[in-house]
């Protein structure tokens, strides 16, 4: 039977080990491999390195195949409209399966761009489409997702003269040269964005530009299924030899509270042990380095809607149920977060959940409510320990209040993962020192009740973020896009040096690796090994050659304690 929509989630599987480029200094390596928990545990068993590396890779695979929400959501959305759906999670890893599905009959191929790298993704999209065309023939290939939303915004800003920095400013001020500047800028942007070069995008049948593109996808699939033309549907961009054709009209807004996922039918397909649950769309904040708030309308789900969906999960998944509440910001305000925590507690769903929160809305009362609801980890975008940098970012965050919120979470045994952006305009040696001081103030060692890690990101100039606007560029003398930039106080190379300096200066908390943590260990053992690993890496950066064996002894002790606790009648106290 012909499939209505063959959905492709990403081009490749998640790469979670390794620390290329600037991040290599921040992660310990053994034998050229990142010393994450899977590798350390394998080496602690005194396996030969090749054997340990293979066992570590096997341990990582379930973590790499984290369940992505989009295909589950789309399958149910389309099914309610009488359309069939199949997912290919990775083009590279499931090519033979993809070809078999196409040979069996597919009406439409939909390619998501959400899980592509932030730089140069248009080139990757074109590469995937070209490969698909070798087996798909004239089957319509439609592209949608967050990279498309960025392309829509980039094209609008370019038309309005709001994207600059690729070429010298004087070229935009001279009437006869401005057209040339725009053409060169268009060519440069086409490496990162679709909708800039219709000839380069010619293999794509249509690009879904609308926010809430699931409605457009369903309408397209219905038209194709009936053998009808879809080119007049609203919210599309159609590549033609003469350029893109953009269709007019309003697309229906999706009711985020009504479109629930029925997890009773999806549970056997889940991987990685964690279930993604949508908490809505969009973000109410307007941070200077981030373009996400401009890409989607704000649509936060009600607590009742989320509880209803989680109840379907509870009917098939044994407790404790690990859940990731997917969204840019769960806690736009304290009241909403407290309401959700109380609703989850009242439903008695036995969850262990994590989500992105704002640290400055947290206090002891709210942290207690979060713990009672099953919150195990808070993902926090702190971004800097310097109040002045936060002001320039328009972050609207007081670092002292954020730190108080993290300590409130720690008192309830809730772990945190905090992110920081290094190199934002205005960044200096002083601001980096304040960031290192802030991180060092997080609970760690024996004074911590949970596990608190941090991750440093190097500043990236997205042409569609507020910091790339002409006024901001002029204010900070910011030049360049993507990973090639400089401004009044720093450039991309010095930002890498600053990241290393912050890492070395931090005392206590560990820099986060993208790794699966041993769930059977007490959290104190996880914290001890992670923090000892950072100390070892800092010693190596200082030119010392400390032995790895002491770290492996800590891993062996943790494994032994975990085994002993599991055999005890009382179990683990972690």
Task: Give structural notes.
- The chain has 574 residues and is an alpha/beta fold.
- Among the domains are: 142 residues, no CATH class; 243 residues, TIM Barrel, CATH 3.20.20.
- It is built from 20 helices and 20 strands.
- The N and C termini lie far apart (51 Å).
- The C terminus is likely disordered.
Quickly give the CATH architecture of the domain at 270-512: Alpha-Beta Barrel
Q: Provide the low-confidence segments as ranges.
A: 15-19, 568-574
CATH topology annotation of the domain at 270-512: TIM Barrel
Rounded Rg? 25 Å
Distance between the termini: 51 Å
Mean pLDDT: 90
Number of DSSP strand runs: 20
* Strands in their spatial order, largest beta sheet: 4-1-5-6-7-8-9
**Strand pairing plus helix content: what structural class?**
alpha/beta
At the fourth CATH level, what is the homologous superfamily of the domain at 270-512? Aldolase class I
Task: State the shape.
Answer: globular
CATH class of the domain at 270-512: Alpha Beta
